[in-house]
């Protein structure tokens, strides 16, 4: 059973990373712009799919980063999330893959923070690191496989 959970966890994780990379680099227009005014995009567009997408896209990263640490350190996990988001924004600018936007950094960080909080709730509920890892594996499979299936269906029909 543990091998199945481990395999499912890694399949979902790799697919999540594929979706993350595809979404932030390959599904973008070849343009270069930068916005350094906080909340400008949110004030202009409101809470659109783009805003929610930035938040939702980083929730798993917060959970996975927290799970990978031998000993959980909130600020290290949050720093890794901010660093990852900042790295994405810089690479988008360098390679002309969409807009580099401070709001993306803030929203991605908010999503990662939600992921950290989910991890901490799991830690309180399950108490042991091993049980938390099993729970994260199960959640990854339960949430991830339908997302994988939906992505395949959308790819086939588009």
List the defining traits of the structure above.
single chain; 158 residues; mainly alpha; two-stranded parallel ribbon; 6 helices; 2 strands; 80% helix; globular
**Helix and strand succession?**
HEHHHEHH
Strand order of the largest sheet: 1-2
Radius of gyration: 17 Å
Strand content: 5-15%
The tally of structural domains comes to: 1
What is the approximate shape?
globular
Main β-sheet description: 2 strands, parallel
- Mean pLDDT, rounded to whole units? 91
Instruction: Say how many strands there are.
Output: 2
How far apart the termini lie comes to 36 Å
| Number of helical regions | 6
Helix content: over 70%
Report on the structure:
With 158 residues, the protein is mainly α. The chain has one domain. The protein contains six helices and two strands; from the N terminus they run H-E-H-H-H-E-H-H. The chain has helices at residues 2-26, 40-45, 49-68, 74-94, 102-126, 129-157, and strands spanning 32-35, 98-101. The chain has a two-stranded parallel sheet with strand order 1-2. Helix 4 runs antiparallel to helix 5 (102-126) and helix 5 packs across helix 6 (129-157). 25% of the residues are buried. The mean pLDDT is 91.
